[in-house]
Structure formats: C-alpha cells, structure tokens
C-alpha cells in the first residue's frame, strides 16, 4: 500500500512539472518570434565617445591590429619638450647599472655615472660634486641634486603593449575611458606581476582593501588581483566611482571648471588613483590653483605635503613619459591623422 501511494505521488509531481514547463514554453512562443523577450541579461552597449582616441595599430613584423589609445593632446601641449618628461624617458631606457644626476626642481640632467662607483664614494666627495653642479648651473645650496637609477628592467614596453587591447576592452565594457587603462598598464606593473612595498599587487597594482571593495577575493588561498580581467574591473570601478567623482569635488571646492576629456583632468585623476584624492586635495591647497589647465599639473609636481612627496609628484610625469615612449616605439608621431583605422 505504501509503495502504491509513493508511486502515485511521484507521477503526480512529474505530471505537474511537465505541465508547468509546457505552459512556460507556450507563453514564451510569442516572444521567440517577435524578438521581444524579457531576458534579464542586458547586452553591453559600447559608449563610442570613450573610443574617440582608440586606434588600431600593428607592431613591426606583426600583422595583427590591436587597440591603442593615441592622445594627441600630449603633443598639442608640447609635453614631449618638458625636461621632467625627457628625464623619465631617459631613465626608462637606462640600464640599472647606470644612474643620472639631475636638478631636483626641473629634472635637468647634469651628469651620468656608473651606479656602483657613485655608491662607493664617500659623503665628502659626493657633496663636493653636488656643490660643483649647483655652482655650474647658478643654483644655491637649497637646490637638490638627485641620483636616479636606470629603470630599463622595469619598463618593459613590449610586454605592456600586449596587454593594452585587453585592458582597453575591459575598461570600455565598464564604461570607463580606456585612456586610464593604458596609462596604468604602462607604469604600474609593465614587466611582471609583483607586489609593491605598500602591498599593491597585480597588473593594476591594487591594494587589498580596494580589491575587496569591488568584489575580488584576496585571502591566503586566492588573490584575484592577479586575474587580469577581474583586476581591470576593480581598477576601472575605482576610477569611475571614487577617483573621478572625488576629483570633481576637489575642483568644485576650488571653483574650477573642467572637462573630463582634457589631459590635465585625466592626469589629476591619475594622481588620485596613486596617492588618494584626500592627499591630492591637500597638495592642491598648498598653491590654490585658480584655473584648470596643464599649469595646475605642472605646479602639482612641486607641491609637497606629509603624504604627497616625490613619488606622488612624479606620477603624472611618468604617465606622460611612458605614453610618449610607447608612441615612439610603435612609430606614432604628432602628425598622425585620422587616416589610420579607428576602433569601433
């Protein structure tokens, strides 16, 4: 008797489920033919405005066209002529055994030396050399003479180039200007995945707290900051929801108008990405800019607070230098025009 009862329940349940599926299919038929289904997965709508500076480029001996951001504003503002930018381009191409000596206020190169030979000199000889440099350049004792090692090993432009296409697509998919993707990939971790002294990791050098904020798993077993696409999503979300809005708030507080497509605005957002918008605000307040333009960025290179020092000052200099160097390596020039194929 129990067996018959259980069998009856089974058949009733099966018949009910089958009927529900049949009714669901009948209800869906009209949508199947008119293409107006209620699928909850929405197609990605590409904002073509984000791709206005994206072009297709091919490296030498490579027939595959890849997405690349070519920003002509860098040349319009003659950033390629700035001594700071020229200096960092030299550093990016200099072997780590060599070092450049430069003036701190404008990064004018005043000498080149073998790094080990400089390190082995005593403080008295180093001071004598610095004093002679100051005298030759008409500077007083307050002028800093800096020694910077070559960073050719770190700035692997070939490896960075391979990631641009993927990074550009990831940022555009998240409705974020791909200019930021290329800038970050050029200077944050262009040679290999490594952890910074502060604990940032991955191709977009994210801190643990930031990665977790945007849903990435970071624990002893798994660190999704090493996953390119997940890391790109977190980095683009950080820029979209925190860096850009906070940069706008800072500029509003200074009564400065802005255009998000302007080079100076993007560089300021990059400073927020690196140092945090709070530290950028304090740095800007040391000289209280009255207008939004490249001069705001140039003055920021000399601003200093407790948490906005040399590395923070140099950040946008590195962005400009790396972009110019990459353009040069793939044979792009200021005369580049719309005859090149643009990405859709």
Quick summary of this structure?
The protein is mainly alpha-helical and 344 residues long. It has helices spanning 2-34, 73-76, 83-92, 115-120, 123-136, 157-173, 178-187, 208-213, 228-253, 263-275, 277-284, 294-300, 310-329, and strands at 54-57, 66-69, 98-103, 109-114, 145-149. The N and C termini lie far apart (70 Å).
Low-confidence spans: 20-44, 337-344
Radius of gyration, CA atoms, in whole angstroms: 27 Å
Strand content: 5-15%
The helix-strand sequence is HEEHHEEHHEHHHHHHHH
Task: Provide the CATH top-level class of the largest domain.
Answer: Mainly Alpha
Please report the total strand number as a whole number.
Answer: 5
CATH topology of the largest domain: Lysozyme
Please state the average pLDDT score. Answer: 86
Helix content: 40-55%
The span between the termini is: 70 Å
- Tally of separate domains: 3
Per DSSP, the total helix count is: 13
What would you say this structure looks like, in words?
With 344 residues, this protein is mainly α. It has three domains: 1-42; 48-79 and 153-329, Lysozyme (Orthogonal Bundle); 100-149, no CATH class. The chain is 51% helix and 7% strand. The protein has 13 helices and five strands. It has helices at residues 2-34, 73-76, 83-92, 115-120, 123-136, 157-173, 178-187, 208-213, 228-253, 263-275, 277-284, 294-300, 310-329, and strands at 54-57, 66-69, 98-103, 109-114, 145-149. The protein has a three-stranded antiparallel beta sheet. It has a two-stranded antiparallel ribbon with strand order 1-2. β1 (54-57) and β2 (66-69) form a beta hairpin. It is globular and about 55 Å long.
């Amino acid at each position: 008797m129990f067996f018959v009862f259980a069998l009856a329940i089974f058949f009733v349940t099966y018949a009910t489920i089958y009927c529900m599926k049949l009714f669901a299919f009948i209800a869906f038929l009209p949508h199947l033919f008119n293409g107006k289904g209620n699928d909850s997965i929405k197609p990605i709508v590409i904002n073509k405005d984000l791709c206005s500076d994206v072009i297709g480029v091919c490296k030498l001996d490579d027939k595959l066209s890849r997405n690349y951001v070519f920003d002509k504003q860098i040349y319009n503002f003659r950033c390629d002529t700035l001594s700071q930018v020229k200096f960092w381009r030299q550093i990016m191409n200099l072997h780590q055994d060599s070092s450049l000596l430069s003036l701190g206020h404008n990064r004018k190169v005043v000498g080149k030396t073998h790094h080990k030979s400089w390190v082995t000199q005593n403080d008295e000889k180093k001071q004598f050399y610095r004093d002679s440099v100051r005298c030759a350049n008409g500077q007083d004792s307050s002028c800093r003479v800096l020694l910077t090692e070559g960073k050719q090993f770190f700035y692997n432009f070939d490896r960075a180039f391979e990631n641009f296409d993927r990074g550009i697509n990831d940022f555009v998919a998240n409705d974020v200007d791909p200019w930021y993707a290329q800038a970050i990939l050029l200077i944050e971790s262009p040679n290999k995945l490594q952890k910074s002294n502060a604990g940032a990791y991955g191709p977009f050098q994210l801190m643990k707290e930031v990665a977790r904020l945007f849903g990435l798993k970071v624990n002893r077993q798994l660190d999704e900051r090493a996953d390119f696409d997940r890391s790109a999503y977190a980095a683009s979300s950080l820029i979209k929801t925190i860096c850009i809005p906070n940069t706008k708030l800072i500029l509003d507080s200074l009564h400065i108008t802005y255009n998000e497509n302007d080079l100076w605005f993007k560089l300021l957002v990059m400073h927020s990405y690196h140092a945090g918008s709070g530290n950028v605000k304090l740095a800007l307040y040391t000289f209280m800019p009255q207008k939004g333009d490249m001069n705001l960025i140039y003055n920021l290179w000399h601003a200093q607070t407790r948490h906005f020092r040399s590395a923070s000052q140099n950040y946008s200099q590195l962005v400009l230098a790396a972009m110019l160097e990459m353009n040069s390596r793939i044979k792009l020039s200021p005369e580049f025009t719309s005859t090149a194929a643009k990405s859709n």
